Amino acid sequence: MFKKIVIFGVGLIGGSVSLALKKLPHPPHITGVGRSDHSLQEALGLGLIDTAETNIANALTDADLVLIAAPVAQTPAILRTIQPHLSANTIITDAGSTKSDVMSYAKAELGSQFNQFVGGHPIAGAEKSGPSAAMADLYIGKNVILTPDAATDADAVKRVAALWQACGAVVSNMSPQAHDRVFAAVSHLPHLLAFALVEDLAKRDNAELLFKFAASGFRDFTRIAGSHPEMWRDIALANKQALLEELNTYQQAVSEMTVLLENNDDAGLFALFEHASRARNEWAKSKTNKT
Amino acid sequence: MFKKIVIFGVGLIGGSVSLALKKLPHPPHITGVGRSDHSLQEALGLGLIDTAETNIANALTDADLVLIAAPVAQTPAILRTIQPHLSANTIITDAGSTKSDVMSYAKAELGSQFNQFVGGHPIAGAEKSGPSAAMADLYIGKNVILTPDAATDADAVKRVAALWQACGAVVSNMSPQAHDRVFAAVSHLPHLLAFALVEDLAKRDNAELLFKFAASGFRDFTRIAGSHPEMWRDIALANKQALLEELNTYQQAVSEMTVLLENNDDAGLFALFEHASRARNEWAKSKTNKT
User: Fold this and answer.
1) For the Prephenate/arogenate dehydrogenase domain, which residue ranges apply (chains A, B) (predicted)?
2) Which superfamily is assigned to A178-287 in CATH?
3) Distance, CA of B277 to CA of B258 (rounded, Å)
4) Residue B93, strand partner residues
5) Would you call B133 an interface residue with chain A, using a CB distance cutoff of 8 Å?
6) What is the ipTM of this complex?
């Protein structure tokens, strides 16, 4: 395991890694680096980090792992900042929700040390963010995807996998491109659709009346529309191509459903709803106690 | 309060009314009528009804309230069946999710007794259905909307309101048309969008991989896609015009969001997500402990 870990961005994601590792018999020393002194002091106060550091050279001294858990748009700048201070033994990983862009950033910024970078994506989250949202059990039973390149050091991949397994996660490997296509479909698309629905209603003259009678179905459908706007702007732009394809495919699916309704096609609507409902309930059964 | 209530369709909605009323000091006698003998026997076994009846004349003898809580497509047939047996003192109400259609059915089938019919819609539900899903506290704090016509007997409206209040609900009145427009937006549209998303993914060649990595955001967004297909086919067709308008408006909203993404309009995407996220979180705060 690692002896000194430097976390950039001690919020829900980074802070939860820290809390999980602190339960190990020999926890690593954890240094937090962040944009906001307020967040760092909060993370220190909550015991998420052992040291708060603003000097990058000091932070990276003897670090054997750097975890970048800041909003993904900051990743290139962070990589650029740390590159001059990286030893040959420091592994770098991230927790960003998009991976093709991050792998390109790492290749561009880390140069000959690109082989020390392991792209990662923990499939865990909550609508809350910030240090106070961190939980030691956030990753238990959750999927973490690593996206190594042909150049990536195999030992580095194994050690990052071991880190996440120590947090209770189940680790899979995938290419960055395959990762981004999968998450455009199952995560990024639903987020954008939920934002669009809430905005569609919120900007109407009768929004107050509509929201008064919105109930549990609306609540669950729109929960992810309460997510962090900056993070989702960054994800949408970072995974633009795959997401545009998904938006296009989805709008076609909605148009086909709309035609069934226009034609009073009761058998067609029933078949669509019945198939979707069966697929959704089978999925939920397969995931019981897993998500 | 009522002395004898006849419930058509003793599932989640009708069964939960029954369980709530059974907590009153002087609960009414409750007779269940249903399509399926199996459901009726199950309802009897669970104590949801006092009597199971297949003979409509017997069921309606001395009934002072008939509650139609069957799938909404059955409402005209039920009204036709009960009409010959209605006394001048029997109030008829329903629990359907659409109201313009139900009010028209009632006008057509009940003739001179249309004034005894009070359209109603309890805003409560769950993805489970059937007698075993019934809960005594389902309606506590929930909205129930009544949609009286100019012809509707005012005392009947008051008595149906009192019934729902006895179940713990908050009762509002609205025109059938206004009701259907509101629920097309806040309920029927999200249901259709969730069905469409699950179906869009479920029919792909890599559905298994996609579902493996779908997590909590997908789970909540698609919970309502696990809903009863027959019920949602009926709702969609019954509220066709309002729903087609909503689908059209939503597709425009998604297209506008897509243009922001195509143009890399980071400020535009941020503004949309930020506004939606604020509206959604304020809504959730206003609803705490209410939904």
Assistant:
1) 3-291
2) 6-phosphogluconate dehydrogenase C-terminal like domain (1.10.3660.10)
3) 18
4) B67, B118
5) no
6) 0.89
